[in-house]
Amino acid sequence: MSDRPWLVVGLGNPGPKYAGNRHNVGQMVLDLLAERTGARFSKHARAQAVVAEARLGVLPGGAPGPRVILAKPTTYMNTSGGPVSALAKYYDIEPDHVVMVHDEVDIPFDTIKLKVGGGEGGHNGLRDTTKALGTKEYHRVRVGVGRPPGRMDTADYVLRDFSGTEKKDLPILVDDAADAVEMLLTEGLLAAQGKFHVAKA
């Protein structure tokens, strides 16, 4: 594993109005990662984001995990790319060491998938990030929120809070996603996919 730092970004919308939305599950994961490391978010001087620096996880063999910059853009979702690009430039991090943690309607609630590159699936935060970075070749930790019921518009669905039933299992989903980020950074993409892409019993 490389000793280069990683930029891990949790996507969402700013402010308490949106904090519990499905669209903000990426930021929930970042909050847990910061809590695990004892890091605290603070406003970044050069980017519209709050950041926390830490070492994440433990490498095989017991050494501390890689240096990471945990980041939550303070812009709205559809303009996430600017802060991501600014942070990548500031910390001299190439796209292959950028990890976007985001909600994903194309996979079921309580499911985690990881990939590098590929399409954005209509996700405006990813689309803007791809445009700003000039490449699709960054890591994604996709946190399943499921499809909207009936004919509900997808945009309306992701801007609503999780249902009462979902809220009972949400801490487990967020915990799993945080584990997936740690495993990605300490053991690699294939190892993380091997663990988290297995169907739950």
UniProtKB/TrEMBL annotation:
The active site is at H23 (proton acceptor). The keyword Hydrolase applies. It catalyses: an N-acyl-L-alpha-aminoacyl-tRNA + H2O = an N-acyl-L-amino acid + a tRNA + H(+). The record marks N13 as: Discriminates between blocked and unblocked aminoacyl-tRNA. Keywords: Cytoplasm, Hydrolase, RNA-binding, tRNA-binding. SUPFAM superfamilies: Peptidyl-tRNA hydrolase-like. One of its GO terms (molecular function) is tRNA binding. It comes from the Bacteria. Its EC number is 3.1.1.29. TRNA binds at Y18, Y76, N78, N124. GO terms for cellular component: cytoplasm. The record marks D103 as: Stabilizes the basic form of H active site to accept a proton. It is found in: Cytoplasm. It holds the Pfam family Pept_tRNA_hydro. NCBIfam families: pth. Catalyzes the release of premature peptidyl moieties from peptidyl-tRNA molecules trapped in stalled 50S ribosomal subunits, and thus maintains levels of free tRNAs and 50S ribosomes. Hydrolyzes ribosome-free peptidyl-tRNAs (with 1 or more amino acids incorporated), which drop off the ribosome during protein synthesis, or as a result of ribosome stalling. Belongs to the PTH family. Monomer. This is Peptidyl-tRNA hydrolase. The lineage of its organism: Bacteria, Bacillati, Actinomycetota, Actinomycetes, Micrococcales.
